[in-house]
């Protein structure tokens, strides 16, 4: 179990905070807005109405003992930066910050925060990817253009042999196949797919794009 602080309890910050709680961590939530704090106070370990640009407030809350601090102040870039500066001065090592604009991102880069988050952009990319590749239900970017992709088999591909799908992208590795609750890690190439099956594959972006086109063309 770890201890986190989430500063700014708008929709993004509140979601991060409650998710961390559901993952069995302790969370201190801080927001200027009384209503936001009251809405969430019974779900968090500790919720405080406070101005996070005031270093004394952060000090009193003992934020430096947190394993990580998420700064989720959006619109008020000045407040976000000031808060990050105080956290840095207090010696907080793991600071993740939500950035609202390019200039905000640039300043945060110079402040050397561990992670800069762009939730709206990230979600926009994911929505566009899902619309473009409906069979891809999840993906994870690895380094060097490699991806792990979860594919759901739809009715169009029911009864298609796996090797018929994969023959146009032999560079792609099938990591696992799941049907109902049964997971297989050694996937037979002549497996006949069924609607609802899950495949998890790994490969470079270009062959994956190629495979996606083949999925659509079937
Ligand atoms: P979201 O999209 O997550 O709802 P947003 O990106 O529009 O939020 P804001 O609403 O500007 O961002 O800020 C998020 C929260 O941060 C708000 O609830 C706001 O009250 C809080 N906040 C802003 N300034 C401070 C501050 N100085 N100290 C603490 N909380 C602050």
Automatic annotation (TrEMBL):
The record's listing under Pfam families reads: TrkA_N
Tell me, which GO biological process terms does this entry list?
Answer: potassium ion transport
The RCK N-terminal domain sits at 1-117
- The organism's superkingdom is given as Bacteria
SUPFAM superfamilies for the chain: NAD(P)-binding Rossmann-fold domains, TrkA C-terminal domain-like
Q: What is this protein called?
A: TrkA family potassium uptake protein
**The organism of origin for this protein:** Acinetobacter pseudolwoffii
């Amino acid at each position: 179990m770890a201890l986190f602080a989430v500063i700014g309890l708008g929709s993004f910050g509140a979601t991060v905070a409650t998710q961390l709680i559901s993952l069995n961590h302790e969370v201190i939530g801080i927001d200027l807005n009384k209503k936001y704090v009251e809405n969430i106070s019974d779900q968090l370990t500790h919720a405080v109405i406070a101005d996070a640009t005031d270093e004394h407030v952060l000090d009193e809350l003992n934020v430096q003992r947190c394993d990580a601090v998420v700064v989720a102040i959006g619109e008020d870039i000045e407040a976000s930066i000031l808060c990050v500066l105080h956290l840095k001065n207090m010696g907080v090592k793991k600071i993740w910050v939500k950035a609202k604009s390019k200039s905000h991102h640039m300043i945060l880069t110079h402040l050397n925060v561990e992670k800069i988050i762009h939730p709206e952009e990230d979600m926009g990319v994911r929505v566009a990817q899902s619309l473009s590749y409906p069979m891809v239900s999840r993906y994870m970017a690895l380094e060097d253009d490699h991806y792990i992709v979860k594919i759901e088999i739809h009715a169009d591909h029911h009864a298609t042999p796996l090797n018929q799908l994969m023959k146009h992208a032999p560079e792609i590795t099938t990591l696992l196949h799941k049907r109902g609750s049964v997971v297989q890690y050694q996937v037979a190439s002549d497996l006949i797919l069924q609607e609802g099956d899950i495949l998890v594959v790994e490969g470079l972006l270009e062959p994956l794009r190629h495979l996606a086109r083949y999925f659509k063309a079937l």
